[in-house]
Specification:
Helix content: 10-25%
Structural class: alpha+beta
Organism: Streptomyces pharetrae CZA14
Keywords: Signal
Distance between the termini: 63 Å
Protein name: Deoxyribonuclease NucA/NucB domain-containing protein
Number of strands: 17
Shape: elongated
InterPro entries: DNase_NucA_NucB (IPR029476)
Length: 426
């Protein structure tokens, strides 16, 4: 059999499947009465809101491109290979797929302070406005890849609608169905520094027929925050806290608004120009990212530091100061960076005093007083709740641990009060 014959056979078989499915579906629908308007208002709703028996005849998704060609009386075309994504986008998509449960939430999976991803599947049913007739079903995946930048007050979002599949009844034309992604942003003025501003992209909404999305699924939005130059020495880090939100729309001719598409994606961002304390002088981060400082007890460079922190978090009865019911933050409760040098010095002095109280004069031993939570955190030893620990450990180990802590601060653009957690591996 030649290729043309194969394609025509496939088209005929697919059309037959469509016909058999839709005839069965039509048989279960309420027949219109004489006084039913010829054009009944319709609405898309979440398929999960309907009983399973109402969807039993609408469980056979057909790729949109195949459906559209059958509507045109053409044989299905062989799918062309998609244009490869840039490397960083492709890597993030693959990782996102491995975190499917988190990726389908409104905030998506936040890989780091600089990368985030949402992959959210949708399953919608088109019904008449009174809920008496089901006209079809629409499946698709929504993607949003987010990229913030260390060194630039900028955030990019690569949004798309992909993997579109449909199953309309014979009298409904899915080529006229539309989907829209609509972005909006807000600034938290009370949390931001004076005069906060965000420059939004020229195009913030895209509402297209399914066929347009199927051919061109991706589009990019770039948000930036203008700055006034280096003002951090004057106490102005030009922090701007912003939330980007996306609403989803779904419609067909004569349809009512889709009411379940509000805030299907949200992204919390901070722009700053904090200077060298943050590493690169300016940048942007996703503020809901979980930042962790990871240390291993098997790492000879910091194994003593790691063991001390592990004991403080998991076996506080082995640590000093000792008191009944003692707990130490950092695992479930976050630590928060402290920038003030005077308060850091006060923490160190308080911790050294505790070391001397327990071990006496240790000068000349090569040991140093290791403190946890760190002096550079707001949970340090002068906080006043005695939820800290000190231990004498090897001096090189202590100093290496301190350098790794500082690296974590700058690699993640941690500013004063930013939260992070400890993770000790064994």
């Amino acid at each position: 059999m030649n290729v043309r014959s194969s394609l025509l056979s496939l088209a005929t078989a697919t059309t037959a499947v469509l016909a058999s499915l839709t005839v069965a579906t039509s048989a279960t629908q309420a027949a219109p009465t004489a006084d039913t308007p010829a054009s009944t208002s319709t609405v898309f709703i979440d398929a999960a809101s309907l009983p399973a028996d109402e969807l039993s005849d609408l469980g056979h998704p057909i790729p949109y491109a195949e459906y559209a060609r059958i509507q045109e009386g053409k044989a299905p075309a062989r799918q062309a290979a998609a244009d490869p994504d840039p490397g960083d986008q492709q890597d993030l998509r693959q990782q996102c797929a491995n975190h499917a449960a988190q990726a389908k939430t409104a905030t998506g999976w936040i890989k780091s302070r600089f990368e985030s991803c949402q992959k959210r599947p949708f399953d919608l049913v088109l019904r008449d406005i009174r809920g008496t007739t089901t006209l079809g079903r629409l499946w698709f995946d929504q993607w949003v890849l987010g990229f913030a930048y260390d060194g630039n007050r900028r955030v990019d979002y690569v949004a798309s609608i992909e993997n579109i599949r449909v199953q309309p009844i014979p009298t409904e034309d899915a080529t006229k169905w539309r989907l829209g992604q609509h972005f909006r942003d807000t600034i938290n003025v009370s949390k931001s520094d004076p005069d906060p501003k965000v420059t939004v992209p020229q195009t913030v909404a895209r509402d297209e027929l399914l066929g347009v999305w199927d051919r061109t699924p991706h589009w990019t939005l770039t948000y930036t925050s203008p700055d006034k130059g280096a003002l951090f020495d004057q106490g102005n880090q030009q922090r701007v806290f912003s939330t980007v939100t996306m609403d989803l729309s779904a419609s067909s001719p004569n349809s009512a608004p889709f009411t379940e598409g509000g805030s299907v994606y949200t992204s919390s961002v901070r722009y700053d120009y904090a200077g060298k304390v943050a590493g690169k002088h300016k940048g942007a981060v996703f503020t809901k990212a979980r930042v962790e400082l990871v240390m291993s007890q098997k790492d000879p460079a910091v194994n003593e530091s790691a063991l001390h922190i592990y004991d403080a978090l998991n076996r506080p009865e082995r640590t000093f100061p000792s008191w009944p019911g003692k707990t130490v933050p950092g695992a479930k409760e976050p630590l928060h960076r402290l920038i003030n040098k005077e308060k850091q010095d006060a923490n160190r002095k308080r911790s050294i005093k505790e070391c001397e109280k327990v071990w006496g004069n240790y000068s000349g031993s090569g040991l140093e007083c290791d403190e946890y939570p760190f002096a550079s955190t707001k949970e340090g030893s002068t906080k006043g709740d005695n939820r800290f620990s000190v231990r004498l450990i090897d001096g090189d180990d202590n100093e290496t641990g301190g350098r790794r802590l500082n690296d974590m601060y700058t690699l993640n653009r941690m500013l004063d009060g930013d939260a992070f957690y400890m993770k000790i591996t064994t």
